[in-house]
Write a structure and sequence with these properties.
single chain; 427 residues; alpha/beta; Urease, subunit C, domain 1; TIM Barrel; 2 domains; eight-stranded parallel β-sheet; six-stranded mixed β-sheet; 16 helices; globular; binds N-(iminomethyl)-L-glutamic acid; binds fe (iii) ion
Length: 427
């Protein structure tokens, strides 16, 4: 018995890259035959001649178009792709999209030879954005972030993770989290808000990082727990050490929050392995990750989120250990890290291109990094990240034929329309 009722919105005529690792097992809802057949490219889970039935915002079934026609079925609405590509909606699993001001002047200083670390030690860097973010009203932060999110949505993003971390006091961190969550209610995008209070030592605690971490654990985490789904920390010589990072994660776990980490970006601290051992859903940056750390991530199923925008903008030389990540079957995600300092980036597709050209990912790994593996990095892979029966009908459609073309060209947005929960987005 099939579950086709006729009330569905049907997407047909698309070349579908399901990004479903089990796509070989997908069967036609009507005939029961495998949908991929002999022409299937398993890596992208490509399906041709297949229709998607959507009802209640979810993928209700997948079926061969010729079987639908043979049975003379009609539907509430049909979206005809006319040969365009359809992928899962893109997922930006690491961003700092809400902030005040910008840091173009610091970028100019870096071009003149001053390093990111030197600027941070002189009180610039993250702390300069903290001053601008504290000074901005909630509405100002929302309006500025709205402009930025529109660029990402226009390029197919349907889910985004947004971190706090430029407030560093309770009220300002809560202000940032409210803005992040409001973006999710006013735009056709799901927002996962992450508390990143342990981003830098707050000015009020200058010279007393342990005191600040105590405050984060005693006050900021407990009072933010209802406004976020995860807690992140920046473990680095210019930020927090391993013991401080561990305290933050222990506290987060007491509130049932997921943990994620900014790790091994500028030096090796051991934070990625620490976080993986504590059950982190992702470890992010990872240029200085060791082969041994890769085994730890692989053992725990922690996603390695690579941020080529920060690598590129900071003119880094050390690259993440892609071969060891592959050998240990660590899922690799790609994200914008959109922020005013290390990665003023508003294109996820460009990050896919950079992940290929700078880090040596295959185009398929890059597309998986913005879909199914990005969903894993947010622990949302049961509901989004692939074209799979039962998942949300979050689709990106494209004026290209093959998925590799999404990360092959630079600029010239190839989007042909985005669907959130089955509905065409407008913003
Ligand atoms: O992901 N590494 C730490 N945090 C951000 C940058 C923050 C900033 O420079 O404002 C990052 O790169
Ligand atoms: Fe970041």
């Amino acid at each position: 018995m099939n579950s086709i009722s006729g009330h569905e919105v049907v997407f047909r005529g698309f070349n579908i890259a399901t990004m479903d690792p089990n796509s070989a097992e997908i069967k036609c809802e009507l005939s029961g035959e495998p949908l991929g057949g002999l022409t299937q490219q398993l890596e992208y889970g490509t399906l041709n001649g297949t229709a998607i039935g959507v009802e209640g915002g979810k993928i209700k079934w997948l079926a061969l178009e010729r079987e639908l026609d043979r049975n003379g079925l009609t539907f509430a609405q049909t979206v005809n792709g006319e040969g365009k590509l359809l992928t899962p909606g893109l997922i930006d699993c690491h961003s700092h999209l809400v902030f005040g001001g910008n840091r173009a002047s610091e970028w100019e200083r870096r071009l003149n030879g001053c390093s990111y670390e030197e600027i941070a030690k002189q009180g610039g860097g993250i702390l300069s954005t903290v001053s601008a973010t504290r000074a901005a009203t909630e509405e100002e932060l929302f309006q500025a972030a709205s402009k930025r999110i529109k660029s990402l949505l226009a390029e197919g993003v349907t889910t985004i993770e947004i971190k706090s971390g430029y407030g560093l006091d309770l009220d300002s961190e809560l202000k940032m989290l409210r803005v992040a969550n409001r973006l999710g209610s006013e735009f056709p995008v799901s927002v996962e808000a992450t508390l990143l209070a342990a981003h830098a030592v707050a000015p009020e605690f200058q010279g007393n990082p342990d005191g600040f971490i105590q405050h984060v654990c005693d006050s900021i985490i407990p009072q933010s727990a209802e406004s976020c789904s995860a807690v992140d920390a920046f473990c680095e010589t210019i930020a927090f050490n391993l013991a401080q990072t561990e305290r933050v994660f222990e506290r987060a776990k007491q509130f049932g929050l997921n943990i994620k980490v900014h790790a091994e970006q500028l030096s090796h601290t051991g934070a990625a392995a620490l976080a993986a051992n504590m059950g982190a859903i992702s470890a992010d940056h990872l240029e200085f990750l060791s082969d041994h750390d890769c085994a730890t991530l692989g053992r725990h199923g922690t996603v390695a989120t690579l941020l080529p925008g920060a690598f590129y903008c900071l003119n880094e030389k050390q690259k993440p250990p892609i071969s060891a990540l592959r050998e240990n079957q660590v899922p690799i995600a790609i994200a914008t890290d959109s922020n005013p300092g290390s990665s003023p980036v508003l294109s996820l597709l460009l990050m896919g291109n950079m992940a290929c050209n700078l880090f040596g990912l295959t185009p398929c790994e890059a597309v998986a990094g913005m879909t199914i593996n990005a969903a894993k990095a947010l622990q949302l892979d049961q509901t989004i990240g692939s074209i799979t029966k039962g998942k949300q009908a979050d689709f990106a459609t494209w004026h290209v034929h093959s998925p590799a073309e999404l990360v092959y060209s630079i600029g010239g947005n190839p989007s042909a329309g985005v669907y959130k929960l089955g509905e065409r987005t407008q913003f």
